[in-house]
Each structure stands twice: as C-alpha cells, then as structure tokens.
Specification:
It is built from eleven helices and 17 strands. The chain is of the alpha/beta class. The protein has two domains: 177 residues, Medium-chain alcohol dehydrogenases, catalytic domain (Quinone Oxidoreductase, Chain A, domain 1, Alpha-Beta Complex), CATH 3.90.180; 137 residues, NAD(P)-binding Rossmann-like Domain (Rossmann fold). GO terms for molecular function: L-threonine 3-dehydrogenase activity; zinc ion binding.
C-alpha cells in the first residue's frame, strides 16, 4: 500500500510502499477513503519542538482525521464488521484509569494518539482500535466522515458556550474556527464575529455564517468588538488560533460573566491580570481537548447528515497521497482552509 511516513526529525514526509497491515486483537483494518490535514500534522511535517513531546519513535505514519470502509477485523471485535463505514477517533483510551472510569475517556491518563504515538491514516489502509472506531450510518458520505473528528472540539465550545441570542467571537478562521462559526449560526447566535489576518479565510468565514469580520492588521479588535456589542463585550469567545497575543487581547473584550474557550495552543505563557480580567469579570475560562466519546460525534453526524451545516466553503482543496507535498505547501502557506488527501 502507499503510505506517507515521518522518518526523520527534520522537515518533510516521504511516500513509500508498505505491506498492508494485519489487524491484531481488538483492531480493525480500514480501507481509507478520505483523510484531512490537521494543524498538528503541519507541526509533524515541519518537525517543531512540540513533536518531541508527543512522538514516541520514528518512522511512523501520520494523519488522524479519516473515514473509510472496514475490510478486516481482528479477534475479539464485536461491534464492527467487514463492510461498515467508519471514522477514527484520535484519542485511544485505556478504559481503566480514573478519567476513563469517570466517563472522561477523551482525557485518558494513559492515552495513545492515533497518527501521533501510533500509526495513523495517511495511507491506503490503516489500523484503528475498535475502542476508537466510530461506525457511521450507511448513507453517510465518507468525505464528510473525515471531518467529524476535527469538528468535535469547536462543536463542544459552541454547545457549552450556550451561544443562543448572544454575541460570539471566533479568533482564528482556520478549519477549527470555521466549524465554530457555522455551528454558532446554527445554534442561534445573534452576532458571530470572525477574526483573522488572512482575507481569504475571512471570506470563507462570511460564507460559513459570520455576521462581522475583523482583520487585526487593519483595525483595533478590542474597539471593534466593543462597538459591535454596545460596549458590553462578547458573551462567548472561542480562541482557535493559538496566537498568544490574540488570546491576551481577548480578555479586553470579554463581557462580565462571559465565557472564553481555548482550543488553540499558544507557544508561550500568557500575561494576564487575573484580578481584573478574570476574577472581577467572573469570567469562565474553559480549555477543551478532545471530543466527548461518543456524545459529540452523534451531534456532529446529525449536523452533517441533515445538511444543517454546509462545509463546502471551507473544504478548499483535495489532493492524492502522491501529491502530499503540494497539499502541505498549500496548508502551510494559508492559501486554503480544510485540505483533504484522498487515497
């Protein structure tokens, strides 16, 4: 099979021919039909310092957002059969630790990560543990199936933010931010304010449902948000850029009693006045990592299968595995938004 490999602690991936793997006990073998590039895949491609804290050994197959058809199952697999349409959950829980026993498998203390600590899906076939395999409805389009995993965290932010009738700010209009924008509109947010320095992505944000667009390079974000909210500030802020300065600035336009959800990963510690920016505001700060298994998936599947959420504006490019270098060039440059690799 064709597979993309990370072989060295340096820039780039390599495409090679590998044997089709055999599923072991508790695993399923999937014929990959669609995969998508995530921000963490860009870090692996560039081999940023973060990678050494996650990757256990090289070489390995990256990629974790995927869907496909089951072609073989290992011993002990009971809930998945050959022919099923499935998608992969990145977080592979142990099922035994305190987090798993208290209904938090997505924050498992002994977690493996599909496409990070174990082989992933940038290949024609991949192995997924049954515990992390989501069976999809027969009629569910497989190209949409690979979007369920990245859709899950921004979905949680919108639902937990209770955005109905409120003003919502989404910082960063990459794929995660675009999901948050679209779902916020579906959930009845009065104002959906999108922030980015990339005009192409702001245009996509408008198509996804943003009511107001802000480019920090052209105007003051704090002044604009306060103006749009009659001086009160935003009730919900979803930070999806990973830009530390943007996150620090957000506290200046967070409404008293507001909620701030952090999804992006800042590359430096934040400088925050806790008293004035959090305590006196009675602000609720929530970090989100992972999808609630499988509650989040059920909601995401419904939004996509019913057509309530239209993802076409944000899926800007599709490439073959053989053209992965061009796919990553486009992703890193910011020319596109959500980029798929179709084996």
């Amino acid at each position: 099979m064709k597979a993309i490999l990370k072989k060295k602690e340096s820039l780039g991936f390599e495409l090679e021919d590998l044997p089709i793997p055999e599923p072991e006990e508790g695993q399923v073998l999937v014929k990959v039909r669609a995969t998508a590039i995530c921000g963490s895949d860009l870090k692996l491609y560039e081999w940023t310092p973060w990678c050494k804290s996650v990757v256990k050994s090289l070489p390995f197959i990256p990629g974790h957002e995927c869907s496909g058809e089951v072609v073989k199952v290992g011993k002990g697999v009971k809930g998945i059969k050959v022919g099923d349409k499935v998608a992969a959950e990145t977080h592979i829980p142990c099922g035994k630790c305190w987090q798993c026993r208290h209904n938090r498998p997505h924050t498992c203390q002994n977690m493996e990560l599909f496409g990070h600590t174990v082989n992933g899906c940038f290949a024609e076939y991949c192995i997924i543990p049954e515990i992390s395999t989501r069976k999809l409805p027969e009629e569910f389009p497989l190209e949409k199936g690979c979007l369920l995993e990245p859709m899950g965290i921004p979905l949680r932010a919108v639902y937990e933010g209770e955005v109905e009738g409120d003003s919502v700010v989404i910082i960063g209009c990459g794929p995660i931010g675009q999901f948050a924008i679209g779902i916020s509109r579906i959930r009845g947010a009065e104002k959906v304010i999108a922030i980015d320095i990339n005009e192409k992505r702001l245009d996509i944000a408008s198509k996804m449902g943003a009511t107001h667009l802000i480019n920090p390079q052209k105007e003051s974000v704090v002044e604009k948000v306060l103006s749009l909210t009659e001086g009160n500030g935003a009730g919900v802020i979803i930070e999806a850029s990973g830009n530390a300065e943007a996150l620090e600035r957000a506290f200046g336009y967070l409404r008293v009693g507001g909620k701030l959800f952090t999804i992006g990963h800042p590359q430096r510690p934040l400088k925050i006045d806790v008293s004035s920016q959090i305590i006196f505001k009675e602000a609720k700060i929530v970090g989100l990592w992972g999808r609630q298994i499988w509650k989040t998936w059920e909601i995401a599947e419904n939004l996509l299968s019913t057509g309530k959420l239209n993802v076409e504006p944000m899926v800007t490019h599709k490439f073959s595995l053989q053209d992965f270098e061009e796919a990553f060039r486009v992703a890193i440059s910011g020319e596109g938004c959500k980029i798929m690799l179709v084996p």
